[in-house]
Each structure stands twice: as C-alpha cells, then as structure tokens.
Amino acid sequence: MIIDAHAHLSDTEYGNTEMYLKVIKEAGIDQGVAVPGAMLDVRKMTEYITGRAKPDNPVPDNEYVEKAIKANQNIQGFICINPHDKDVNKQLEKGRKQGFKGLKLSPLSHQFSFASKGITSLADLCGDYGFPVYSHVVYSPGASTAKFIQLAKQFPKTNFIIGHMGFGPADQEALEAAKNLSNFYLETSTGNFLHIQETVKKIGSSKVIFGSEYPLSHPGIELEKILKLQITDREREEILSQNIKHLLQMK
C-alpha cells in the first residue's frame, strides 16, 4: 500500500478532489491524507515566501476537505485551524466529530509563533485525541525548526510531523530531532533526494513519511524519489505507508 500523507485540496481548477483522485490513481497511490488548500495561491508561492505578497483573508476551507473524506474512503483529513481564533479548542473538537484525524498548522498563512497560547492549547488537546500535529516551518524566530522542536518536547504525548523535511534543502536540526525524539517525524514532500537518502541512512526509516504537497508538486514525481532511494523493501514500506498508518491508527 502507498499513502500520500500530505496533499492540499481546494475548490479550484488546479487543486480539486476529482483531479487529485485521478492523479494518485495514475501514480499507483492507494490513499491520501488531505488538508485545506488555496489559503495561498501556490502558483505565486515565491511572492508569499519573500514577503512581496500577503495572504488575502486566509480562512481554511475545512468543509471542502470534510466533504472529500466523507465521499471517499481512501482520503483521510487533517483540520486546519488559525491559532489566533478564540475558539480553537472547540474547532478541534468539532473537527474530531466530523472525522478529521489530525491538525494542520500554517505559519506562512496565519503568521504565528509556535509558543503562542493558541498553539500550545491545541498541541495539548491533540495529545488527548491522538491527533498528529503537522506544520511546515518558516524563516522566522517564532515559527522556526527550533521552535517546532521545542513544542514537541513540551508535549511528549503528542506526535509532530514537520513538513518538507524541515527548512531549506538539508535541515540537520530537524533530522536530529527525529532521531532523538520519539514523537517527531519528517515528511518528504518537495524534499531533495540526497537529504532523504542521507536521513534514512543516519536514523532509519521509522521517522520518515511520504507526502506529495499536491497540487504544488505531482504525487507521482514525489513518489518516484522514494522509489529510487537505495533502501530495503521494509524501509520503503515504512516510509510509504506504515508510519502514517501508525500515527493515524489506521487498520
């Protein structure tokens, strides 16, 4: 089995559910884990990363992902919550009842610190629910790799997944955290081949999770990087399905 552990779904011409299902079927991927997309126009991502453009009312469309997971047995969902909202715990509780299996954070869209009250409250509650916390990191003191690692240390009962193998092309800080913390995982989407290969060589495969970052990247292209790794079949199976199945308590 192959599971894409990180895809963005949105009611857009370039990132909708129907297109995603078609793409993963063609790529030989069996299941996907979806989060809300289109808070940022990924076709203009460089402008957002450099600060030349700001998100325009970045409200996550959790309803669209909820519809996708209820209509398709091969899609799981992570709810995205703006930690600046006053009712974050109620939103997470509602998401759990709606069938979501984890929490997605977006520091690029919502511009927060991992040390903020909203984040720590959500991280604590995720431990009670058995929800993994997924986030990318940015070049910012409050939302850096170091701050995300601190959050993981603060809440050892909660599992944390850092997107894209961390920050930049070879985030050694994230790699060391995955090696030393039992609740810290690395997700591979848009990560470079050499760093993924070296990570598995150094710390093994049990902390590495395959994801695609659809629609910014093609699931088949991201999968090809994992298929070409010089690793054992068992290690590949862990990366492609077993690790995310464990975190989401999938049968």
Automatic annotation (TrEMBL):
UniProt keyword Lyase present: yes
InterPro entries linked: ACMSD (IPR032465), Amidohydro-rel (IPR006680), Metal_Hydrolase (IPR032466)
Heme among keywords: no
Pfam families linked to this entry: Amidohydro_2
Top-rank lineage group of the source organism: Bacteria
Gene3D superfamilies for this protein: Metal-dependent hydrolases
Alphabetized SUPFAM superfamilies for the sequence: Metallo-dependent hydrolases
Residue ranges constituting the Amidohydrolase-related domain according to the UniProt record: 3-247
Keywords for the protein's UniProt record, in alphabetical order: Lyase
Designated name of the protein: Amidohydrolase family protein
Lineage: Bacteria, Bacillati, Bacillota, Bacilli, Bacillales
